[in-house]
Amino acid sequence: MRSATLWRYAIPLDAGVILRDRRLKQRDGLVLRLRDGQAEGWGEIAPLPGFSVEDLPQAQRAAEGWLSRWCAGALPVDSSLPSVAFGISCALAELDGSLPQAGNYHAAALCVGDPDELFARLQALPHQVAKMKVGLYEPIRDGMIASLLLEALPQLQLRLDANRSWSAEKARQFARYVDPQLRSRIAFIEEPCRTRDDSRRFAAESGLAIAWDESVREQGFVIEAEAGVSALVVKPMLTGSISTLQQLIARAHQQGLTVVISSAIESSLGLTQLARLAQWLTPQVLPGLDTLDLMQQQLQRRWPDSPLPLQLLAEQEAAWRC
User: Fold this and answer.
1) Contact at 8 Å (CB) between 189 and 209?
2) pTM to 2 decimals?
3) Could you read off the pLDDT of 260-295 as tens digits, one per residue?
4) Among 25, 131, 170, 235, which one carries the catalytic annotation?
5) Is 235 known to be catalytic?
6) What is the pLDDT of residue 91?
7) Active-site residue among 25, 131, 133, 170?
8) pLDDT value of position 16
9) Is residue 131 flagged as an active site residue?
10) Which of 7, 231, 257, 289 has its CA 20 to 30 A from that of 314?
11) d(CA 38, CA 274)
């Protein structure tokens, strides 16, 4: 006997997160639970405002349609909406046992907060890999802070994320304030410039490696080896089902590119599933999942060692069920 339940959630974010010039005060999403006999599987459906092609109401309608057919005994094809396809595929993979339990919970640390606390936190990491958002302030400031971190922590590797915020000239300004001797410890800069061609030129001029993120989801993008491009940063919530993710990773590895599985600010439930996918599909690469600190609570499943309070969905009224 099959059954499915959907819950809606809203998790407050500490100080609000700025995404493409908009402040996100809370994270909204859906959690689904599939049951088939004694087996159970969970998944999260959480379009990211400003990044996903779908919004939450569209995702909920699509999920309800897919789940109605599944409860009736069918196995519908993947949804065309990436967040719906991903969340349902996670629930199905838990249901049939194909999603391994082991996870990679050693995520790259997010560089936020008080500088003294940040230095102490980075020094204590078992893997000194950190992610820093750039492009929100002046590029000279970003370059100086990146240099300061790299000089203070000789083992640190930095991943930078610009979200296409720099013009070609601003990218050059950033590079001028990063000591050439430190640049090899910048693993990559995600999408530094507003166009891919400007990003490629920036990589060639500066010697800094770049990674594609938004480009991966654009129509016509081809995964191929390119000078100066070292990695793809993949947010499965924005990409699609687990099978789509597997195909993307296989093509990238064939081209010699590193793949970093990254968060789209999912709840603790979604983050634990991303950690399991990272351990399974990219076992040698530290994922980018250190976004739980932006939230005021966990949801349904705990992230290891997180002190945040846990909200259980059984204590809430379901939004839909079949």
Assistant:
1) yes
2) 0.93
3) 999 999 999 999 999 999 999 999 999 999 899 899
4) 235
5) yes
6) 98
7) 133
8) 59
9) no
10) 289
11) 24
